[in-house]
Predict the 3D structure of the following.
Amino acid sequence: MKKSALQTARAAYQPKLPKALKGSVKVNEGAPTQSVADQEAIAKLFPNTYAMPSITFVESNDSDNAIAINAGVILSGGQAPGGHNVIAGLYDGLKKMNPSNKLYGFLLGPGGLVDHNYIELTDEIIDEYRNTGGFDIIGSGRTKLETKEQFDKGLEILKELKIGALVIIGGDDSNTNACVLAEYYAQIKAGVQVIGCPKTIDGDLKNSEIATSFGFDTACKVYSEVIGNIERDCNSAKKYWHFIKLMGRSASHIALECALQTQPNMCIISEEVEAKNMTLDEVIEQIAQVVAMRAANGDNYGTVLIPEGLIEFIPAMKNLIAELNDFLAHNASEFSMIKKSAQREYIINHLSEANAAVYASLPEGVARQLSLDRDPHGNVQVSLIETEKLLGEMVGRRLAEMKKDGKYNGKFATQYHFFGYEGRCAAPSNFDADYCYALGFNAAMLIGAGKTGYMSAIENLTAPAEQWIAGGIPITMMMNMERRHGEMKPVIQKALVKLDGAPFKAFASMRDEWAKSTSYVYPGPIQYFGPTEVCDQPTITLTLEKA
Ligand code: FBP
């Protein structure tokens, strides 16, 4: 494969490891843990993996046991920068324990385990992918691992390849499945450990023990670079309002981080919209007022950041989506038989009165997007909904009304953008390259320590990598009961933006100023080589949260 000069230089980068993982390790166990909520229900569902202690690895003078084990690895869900380094770290960790250990990669996500599609990862393959973006080393997929049949089918190939440990690299849903799988294999004494790794650009897999998911750092830096470029363009031509939708699923962490990095004129935070019980009209009014205020100062341009999950947080829309989710889950086959042109009417006729009215009021395109297939975990595919256009067009209409009433006298020309796929496979920042390598290497140590049902955890991330703390957190500790596909299920609690958290407060204290006077910041591209204050800084979110 032909490489760019940067790729070649980057391949030689040696990710930094926490001090404790550099030599032999010893396990320090904490007190037994509990789930974040619904303790009784979760304890009952996970009798073999509930209440385990969280653990930390510390340096040891004893020499390592040469633990012989084969392991498997799966990349699950949306791509996130650094996935290849998790696999490289895992591979190096396994080989350090015992050079004869093997690592198998299951292809195209969890489906590879069920369908017995795999490759053995070798020095040559791993070296080709060190410090690169993407998940193409083994591919990813969204097959949901949840049934006994899938687990048993998976076990057949694990037994055949003599695999004693499986590492699942995924987001909240995939790690939920990892936890269920760990419990099942423990219950049937399958002799297979299951370890999770926290992946997702969305940044919503975090809690008191997991500071951030990998990929969030790089993705936000890539989006912030392009938002900064747009802001420069905006400030140069002074003629457009740019509506920029940012990935992140339900959570607004990406939008918030990009706002902190680039200081746009506005950034909507879904969690705030929900807390204030705002209607869609109120969101539109808020944007229109800022446009009018800037126009009054002669500034007919600006930038608005919009989290992709916004639509789900507007209370009336949230109710509608909840009913639609249940309705579509229970009537999937009947719905698939309805002609496309009749689907809107069919849905309106089957929803409750209030939700039918909201659905009927939506522009055709948005209504259609809301009724598209859910992802395998039952989530609305918010990345397919053009919220940026919906808001831009509605603001335009509102401004036209204000013009008639003499309350606005500006020009409003729009440009629309959606940044998501552009950042998910970017070459990992130094932070993600180091963090991911450490997560993978640490996962190998968890395997060596005989653990199952744990998530690989690296803490103290705002300190230099040498001082990071490595260990493991029982996945059951992160779980609660939630309604999915019309049923109560144990799932890892999603971390949304906290309105009393430091990142949101920092944003809220500055946003009026950013709305009024153009205060853009242009972060520029990620730098891999150079001074540490340019190359090795974590996100503003992480820095503020850990300050
Ligand atoms: P994960 O939750 O699997 O990490 O996915 C992240 C994400 O990029 C979301 O931000 C986005 O909504 C979704 O994936 C898009 O999914 P797809 O890749 O299937 O289009």
Notes: The radius of gyration is 24 Å. Residues 77-78, 80, 171, 200-202, 247-249, 308, 382-383, 420, 424 surround 1,6-di-O-phosphono-beta-D-fructofuranose (CB under 6 Å).
